[in-house]
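Q: Hi! First time doing this. I have a protein sequence and I read that you can turn it into a structure. Is that right? Here it is:
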Amino acid sequence: MNSFVDTISPIAKEHIAARVAYVNDVALAVIHSTRQLAEANLQFGRDWLQQSSNAWQQAVLTPAAERSEVAGPTAEAVAQTLQSYQRHVAQIASDFQTSITDVMRQHVPQTTRTATALAEVVSQKAAAETDQQWRINQTASRDLIDQASRFAQVATQNRAMQEPASMQSTEDGGNKN
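A: Yes, that's right. Below is the predicted 3D structure, encoded as C-alpha cells:
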C-alpha cells in the first residue's frame, strides 16, 4: 500500500520543499528578531530599574535644598537611556526587515518556479481529465440515443402488426347460427 507521500508527484514534492524552506527561514528570522527584542527589553528594564532606584535613593538621601541640583543629571541619564533603547529597537526592526527581505530574495524565485511548474501540471491533468470525461459522456449519449432509437423502432413495428382477431367477433355475436 502506498503512503500519502508516495502518491505526491515529484513536482509537488519540490514545491512543498521550497515552501517549507521559505517558511522555515522566515520563522527563524522572526525568532531571532524576537529574541533580540526580548534581550533589548530586558536590558532596558534593568537599566530603567537601576536608574529609578538610584534616583529614588538620591531624592531620599539628598537634603531638600540640593535636590534640584541632583534631579537635572538624573533626568538626563533616564532620557539618554530611553533614547538608547529607542535606537536599539529601531536597529532591531531594521535588521529584521533586512533579514526578511534577504529570505524573500533567496526563496521567492524557487518557490515561484515550483508553483508555476505545479500549476502547469495540474492544468494539463485537469484538461486531460476533462477531455476524457467529455469523451465518456459523448459515448454514453450515443449509446443512449441508439437504445432509444431501437426502442422506438420496436414500438413502431409492434403497432404496425395487426392485432390478432379474437375467436369471437363482437359484431356478429360469435359463431351462433
